[in-house]
Amino acid sequence: MSTVNLTKENFQQTVTTDGIVLVDWWADWCAPCRSFAPVYEKASTEHPDITFAKVDTEAEERLSAIAGISSIPTLMVFRDGVMVFSEPGALPGAALEKVITAVQELDMDEVRAKLGAAS
């Protein structure tokens, strides 16, 4: 499965859907972003049940600012509309697989309960 390009028009709709959505915040000039791209693409083919999306921080400066992106690449992961992971840095393939597995194993009722208690 190829990645979905996110813009300010489709970001909210994409990340609030049911299921898992990974978002790679990147830019053309960023060497770590370029090294992470093939790792991300490979994972997208190995996990067709997950949405893999990308945000070009140069083209989407306002969206990047709203999301608080200060370092790229940054990987965000949403599950059932809840952001459950956000970390800057290019991950190697094995680390990306660990993140995906951890997100798949989350008890979302527990996550929502903790979020409710925190607010």
From TrEMBL:
Coiled-coil portions: none
Protein name: Thioredoxin
Active site: 30, 33
A GO-annotated cellular component: cytosol
InterPro entries: Thioredoxin, Thioredoxin-like_sf, Thioredoxin_domain
Site positions for Contributes to redox potential value: 31-32
UniProt KW Transport keyword: yes
A Pfam entry, by short name: Thioredoxin
Domain Thioredoxin: from-to ranges: 1-105
Gene3D superfamilies named among the record's database cross-references: Glutaredoxin (3.40.30.10)
Cysteines joined through disulfide linkages: 30-33
UniProt family annotation: Belongs to the thioredoxin family.
Site, as annotated: Deprotonates C-terminal active site Cys: 24
